[in-house]
Structure formats: C-alpha cells, structure tokens
Specification:
By secondary structure, the protein is α/β, with parallel strands linked by helices. It has one domain: Alpha/Beta hydrolase fold, catalytic domain (Rossmann fold, 3-Layer(aba) Sandwich). The longest helix is centred in the N-terminal third of the chain and has 20 residues.
C-alpha cells in the first residue's frame, strides 16, 4: 500500500517544480526550477572532490566497502550535479559502496555526445582501478539513459561490462515515442510531457534522436550486465523503462522491471521523506550486491 507521504509529494512537486518547468523558457531558467540549495549533509557519509578522468566526487560511508559504483545524475542533460544527488549516492555509500559521481558536461553548452564521452571516460578509469567484477553502474532519469549509453559505448570499445546496472526511471527514448508520454501526462507530477522534445533538442542539437548513444532504446542491447530498472506506474517515462526491459530480455539478457505505484519520477532522491525511496534504494543495493564477487574493495 502506498505511504501517506506519497500522496503529499505530488502536489508539492506540481507547485514547486512542474509549474516552474512549464513556464521556463531557457535551459538556464529551467535549471533554476530544480533549485540552488546547498548540498544536503548525509549522516555517516563523507564526500570528497576527485577525478576519474572526469571531475566529480566520491561518496564513502563508514562500513567496509563491498563494491564500487559509477553513478550518473539526472537532470535532463542540462541541469543538476553530483551534489544535488547526494541523497542517492549517500544512501548507496551507507550501504557499502564507494560511489563516484562525475560532473559530466551539460547541454546546451556541451551537446551530445559530450555527456557520453565523459561517462565512458569515468567508466574506463574505474574499470582500470577496480575491475569489472567489483563495479556497478547506475543512474536516474537522463543519467539512467546515460548509464545505459555509456555501456553501449564501452561494449563498442571492447571494454568489459560491469557486474550490474541499476536504472531509476531512465530516459531512454529522446524521440519521445512512448505511449505513456501522453497517457500519463495528467498523472505525472514533475516532468512536462509537452516539453520533452524541447529538452531533447537542447542536448541533441541536430543529432538524430534515435542514435543509440543518445537513445539506448534503439541500440543493440545484447551482452549487457544484469539490470534492475525501477519506475513509477504514473510517470510519463514509464514506457522508456518498460520497452528497454523487454528489449534487453529479448536479446538474452536479464532485466528486472520493478514498477512502483503512486510515486513521482525519480522518487529515490526523496529518501529523507518517502519511505518508498528508502525501500527502493535498499532493493537496488541488494540487487547490485548480489552480482558482486566476494571480498572487500580497498579504499
């Protein structure tokens, strides 16, 4: 049964995020809709600036490290940062992961494929330092699509695949062909379906929206690691998750689609308020740990 908190979060998001996104005219105004608040402190987690071929930050908890995670933040390819997503990276750090979140380059200043290049560069660095068997890749929203695109690029480059892939409400189809874009437009409390193509154009700047490294839904999804995809039943990107999971399984892979009721897009970031966010992050951490080789990771 959905929590009482899940009924409160929707009107709050409509008022303070969706309404601003509906009115925003430039990517810079839209960035402001996500807020410019100081990063949240996460109990028991330290954050430190670092570089893994790309600048970013490490999140590390107090428990022994059982795995390393590359986490790619969401934000439509034009907004947010590792700091805005500390509620997620901090949660994974508390659950035993060393988490590196790169500050990949954002559009429109740095259009496609800059974000993919940065994600792949960070993956190369972590792969070389820790090995594929200890490595997990994860991301939310645009960062979820970017995580999948980075692995397609890594496979093309002949690199080993990580132990697992975790995707939260991934944006995998920048052509916006999913039926849920329209079907869930009224129920979606955060994203604006009518502006998704506009946001995609900011990132693509003339590139084909069906290019697999921009929209992984259109790529060859064979040979990818075990994948967990979490998505809300009421969000406009529902079909981006559903179709990718179906295509991965049809290609011989293992993709688990975890659908949650009455939750907003990328609800995992609200773990301080939503019990479902904490439950989802625990499910994701357990899934990732189940794929890892035994043994601790050196700090």
């Amino acid at each position: 049964m959905p929590s009482w908190q899940s009924y409160i979060v929707h009107p709050v998001l409509r008022m303070f995020v969706k309404r601003k996104l509906e009115k925003a005219f430039t990517p810079f105004e839209a960035r402001a809709a996500f807020g410019n608040h100081p990063p949240q402190p996460i109990r028991g987690v330290s954050f430190s600036a670092a570089t893994q071929n790309v600048p970013g930050e490490w999140a590390q908890g107090e428990a022994p490290h059982t795995g390393v995670m590359l986490y790619l933040h969401g934000g439509g390819y034009f907004a947010c940062s590792p700091a805005t997503h500390r509620p997620i990276t901090g949660s994974f750090a508390r659950q035993g992961f060393m988490v590196f979140a790169p500050a990949y380059r954002l559009a429109p200043e740095n259009p496609f494929p800059a974000a993919v290049d940065d994600a792949l560069a960070s993956y190369r660095a972590l792969l070389g330092a820790y090995g594929a068997e200890r490595l997990v890749v994860a991301g939310d929203s645009a960062g979820g699509g970017l995580a999948l695109a980075a692995l397609l690029a890594a496979r093309e480059a002949g690199l080993a695949m990580p132990s697992a892939l975790v995707l939260f409400s991934p944006w995998t189809d920048l052509a916006a062909t999913g039926a849920s874009i329209q079907a869930n437009a009224a129920r979606e409390s955060m994203l604006v379906g009518g502006r998704m193509q506009e946001v995609a154009d900011l990132y693509l700047q003339g590139a084909d929206p069906r290019t697999p490294l921009a929209s992984p839904l259109y790529g060859d999804l064979a040979g990818l690691p075990p994948t967990l995809i979490q998505v809300s039943e009421r969000e406009i990107l529902l079909d981006d998750s559903r179709r990718v999971a179906e295509k991965m399984n049809a290609a011989g892979g293992r993709a688990e689609l975890s659908m949650w009721p009455n939750l907003p897009h990328a609800w995992q970031i609200s773990q301080a308020f939503l019990p479902e966010a904490r439950q989802a992050l625990a499910q994701a951490a357990d899934f990732a740990k189940s794929t890892l080789a035994s043994g601790a990771v050196p700090a």
